[in-house]
Amino acid sequence: MRSEVRAGLLFIAPALALITVFFFLPVVAGMLLSLTDFDIYAIGSLDSVRFVGLGNYATLLSNPVFWKALGNTFTYVLLGGPLSVAISLGAAMLLNSKLVRFRGLFRTAYFAPVVTTLVAVAVVWRYLYHPRVGLLNQALGALGIGPVDWLGDPRWAIPAIIVMAAWKNFGYNMIIFMAGLQTIPESLYEAARIDGAGWWQQLWRITLPMLRPTTVFVVLMTMIGYFQIFAEPYVMTGGGGPLNATLTIVMLMYKEGFRWWNMGTSAAAAFVLFVIVFAATSLQLLLQRGREE
Amino acid sequence: MRRRLTSILLHAVLVAGAVITLVPLAWMVSASLMPTGEASAYPPSFLPSRVTTEHYRALFGSLNLGRCLLNSTLIATTATALCLFLTSLAGYAFARLRFPGRDRIFRTLLAGMVIPAQVAMLPLFLLLKSMGLVNTYWGVLVPYLAPIFGIFMIRQYALSVPTDLLDAARVDGAGELWVYWHVVLPLCRPILVTLAVFVFMGTWNDFMWPLIELTDDRLYTLPVALANLVGEHAQDTELMMAGSVLTVLPVLLLFLALQRHYVEGIMMGGVKE
Questions:
Q1: ipTM value for the complex
Q2: Which of A171, A258, B119, B190 has CB atoms 3.0–4.6 Å from A111's, for a disulfide?
Q3: A23 with B112: Cβ contact below 8 A
């Protein structure tokens, strides 16, 4: 048995060392960093670093750009999350119908955007959204709808990015929902039909309640994804434009840290993100537990 | 009759959905083969009037994106190979070997999964800078090597490996490393393929970390090079589409080849993208 203990420790050692040194250590360092005025000069000589307490957080909270980024981030989450989940569930229910032929083919088609490279498809959508020659406005023009400057108009920029994001990610949740739907016994629907329940009632009384654990997981993962939006504004709106209309917390963190080298402020923004994601996760799990009891 | 009508309606909706989903990708391919200027001409045409490969030649020629294709391939392949080795060792140990502190360590790792990766990026950048690893292949590889979700996936799978097989090998006097290599790894093959697809695609598609870590355009991965290109060549729609095809196509083909494994990975749940 001694050899088993030795082998166990030996086997986890490389992975554990990597995770500790290159993940947990930086997380703790980030927390400490957010309490200092670490900047580009500090990289040269650590002596110039000073402890500033919660100064960086105070700076962030008094910066209107931070509030703009925070508000935008929640807009992405609260608009994009439900939209993504609804499309995923709808697609899963359609594909799950017994009448569907070529199910595998449709599933592959719907799933394809998920595996594409975000940066590359963001580039593609940037051109699709082009106000004058973009395919979208051309199609709308044919229907008599005037051109919209999707990414240049502060009112439309976030919805435009969300539509692109939902297009890219709905296939992932669709797969999870399909698996969830298949666990619901057909006998429940049969019994409901005998009792005269219509399609709508079956959806509300059987499908949605039975899918609840799946839905909680999907909503959680989708929300966390939207909280971390970065590449879309980087590629599509030149880093958060127009007028910071698409700026997110992660984008702000990136700019503070790697454009302006305000490491302390950047680390503080990162921790705000962490706290929000953590709170959202806890809230979701708490709601789930409350329902089960 | 009613059933037939429902079926037609259902398939109409499904086809419409598939068209909407695939149009952006189809247009990307089509526009990448158009002569310069055609993709932004009015009235628009969906198909090229004449197929040209000039934009691809420009990418591999003066723009040197072939180099980035090589970087992406090298980084994603190395990450996948090392990650499979490290996570399978650890995942198996967490599942089947008894040692003090095992469950506590595993629970700590799981708890770490709620921390967004971005929180670690800036300090990690500074750490790698002090180690002289910024702007190197090894530096960019570091966060991909031991993903916690990978350890988790392997552990869940290894729990189902029959105890008899492990014990039989041990009775024969085999060492733990031999058991891992000759018994556990072959039995875990399905999950290893699944994990490999996830890690390869995740590494290939990742943007923020290589953007931060790589400063020399000769080391850029394709997504970073592409984001850079859009700044300089935004007017060259056809060229940008060719660059997008070059970036997307390898992972798309890989997915089509190993689709089943990828989908199984998603169904296992608990997988972070």
A1: 0.92
A2: A171
A3: yes
